[in-house]
Amino acid sequence: MVKHANTFKLLLIILLVAAISFFSYPPLINSLNLGLDLRGGVHIVLGAIETEDAKVTDEVMEQLMMVMRQRVDELGVSEPYIQREGDKRLIVELAGIDNPEEAVQIIGKTASLEFQLADGTVILHGGDLETAQARMDQYTQSPQVNLKFKPEGARIFAQVTGELANSYPPQDPRRHIAILLDGEVLTNPHVNEAIPDGQAVISGGFNEFTEAANLAALLRAGALPVDVEILEKRLVGPQLGLDSIEKSKKAIAIGITFIILFMLVVYRLNGLAANISLVLYGVILLALVSGIKVTLTLPGIAGLLLSVGMAVDANIIIYERIKEELRDKKSIRAAVDAGFRRATLTILDANITTLIGAFVLYFFGAGMIRGFAVTLTLGILTSMFTSLIFSRILLRTAVKIKIFQNTRYFGV
Amino acid sequence: MLQGLNLGIDFAGGTKLMVKFSQEVASEDIREVLSEYNLGRSTIQASENNHFIIRTPILTEQESTQALNALRENLGDMEILSSESVGSVVSAELQEKAIIALLIATILMVVYITIRFELSFALSAIAALFHDILIALSIFSIFQIEINISFVAAILTIIGYSINDTIVIFDRIRENLEFRQKETLSDLVNKSIHQSLVRSIFTSLTSVAVLLALLIFGGDTTRVFALAMIIGFVSGTYSSICIASPLWLELKKRWFINDRKKGKKVNPAPSR
Questions:
Q1: DSSP state of B256
Q2: Each residue of A296-352: pLDDT tens digit?
Q3: Is B262 within the bounds of a domain?
Q4: Do residues A226 and A56 lie in contact, with contact meaning Cβ atoms separated by under 8 Å?
Q5: Domain match, B49 and B117 both
Q6: CB distance from B27 to chain A under 8 Å?
Q7: Distance from B153 to chain A by nearest Cα, in Å?
Q8: Contact criterion met (CB < 8 Å) for A316 and B202
Q9: CATH number of the domain that residue A83 is part of
Q10: Domain residues for A232?
Q11: Are residues A191 and A262 in the same domain?
């Protein structure tokens, strides 16, 4: 009755692994959180510039973050990442945007709007605006931005335009109100009459509608409380991102195929066991990466690939050991046991050093390099499980079956 | 040699652009346009399909936009595939971080091996490690390959892996020491190396194969990284055999036995 129990056990294990893999690989792969270099996007580190008049305090930074959030919202980015770093830095990461360059322009602009009289007196600024909208002028078919002041601003605007209209003759150069953005004159329209309703228009000077739309968005979100400079910028276009994914897939496929073939040829039965545990390894690793929501970047993929190579290393160490034991004329079962036992310590030692390297990398690295450290670490930990525990179960069960009890299967 | 290192923008600051033109463009054309903005000495690297990698010194956003627009106006439609800019502050920081990271990783390794084995093993392993790092740096310096943070990441991984490989052999030596009967120390080391040879080579083989796949099929962005790692792994394997073990032997002999002239003659300083 129980004669073929071990065969059943073995088949059951293999079947389980196959089933788990078949059903989990596709959804797992789809749920992977791709990083900027695979999805396209931009990573910017902004540094707040401290001057005599503008000190950078916690409050200022918080306000900066808020304005940044609104701007990014206007760009329509899903899941933006905006975090403070240190005292004076802000990290902004936007993934999956179509026009990353444009995004950078928008983010870095201080966007301080000023309304100036001919003599340079600033009568109103961006903070007095209630809202701004980009429109297409019906008559001239050119883009423009319609501004609307808040009540107080509207009052001042009405007053000033009225005064100008009354004090100076038409076409007098002093009868203008200049609109400046970050110190540069956008337009300098002539004041025809008093404007009581608090509405103004910025027209002309926009080549495309998107320019007007971007300006309106900036004005709505508000000016940055302090000037910023771009300390670091990394931008990947969506095309390159897709390219990278394709290339990675190819590299992974080829790398893994080689390993599978190698193990089969050199280690035969052991190799087969290693390959089966490799399949399980893949599932567990992907599940971990997906579950912990690790952002997968190109270095991250390299880390995964490398850990596959190292996972197999553990198996190789064990199998060489088993071969030795077999050469010493031990029985197959005893050889397998001894092999696993003696190899465990070596594997632990070896993996710990690589883990130390990965840990230092994580601690000192940032962004994408951290991704590499994380995937490498996860990979090594998972590989210890699959090669020390799973392969052992697999092999131990296998050697109890008569058919496999031949040293030739072990490459001896 | 250190002066010959081609520091990438991560450590030297600057901007690196990967662009693609929709029509035929030659590097000289690009250089001409850039010269008008005082950027004539930028590095321009061409690859197939009118792809170019342009590297300039640190530019402000404005300067960079100006230059890009100029290129577009003069040379036609240009698509920016990727762009990276690192300012001077950040690049100085990255340099510092990289060096500290390498130092700390090395120290941690020494500590670990001393705990697991003993000091003589640790010293030999570190010597082999330095050799590996020097080889990687030398090759990158000779061929003037750009050194960016991915290179540092590769080095840190190599540190872990090289020690890893060295440990495999030391483990064997330690085990054989336990059961040692009458053999000379050098014979024992020899035997240990023999026993671990196959394993060492095969484990490196699998990792190198995987990295080769990455190198050949993985595209430009991971190329440098894959190359650095391959150099490191290959070097790591043979340094464990040819440097760490004989060095340990030599150290042990000096401390214990003085009149043994047999055994492997060793070059304590790697002569590459």
A1: S
A2: 888 888 888 888 888 888 888 888 888 888 887 778 788 888 888 888 888 888 788
A3: no
A4: yes
A5: no
A6: no
A7: 7
A8: yes
A9: 3.30.1360.200
A10: 41-236
A11: no
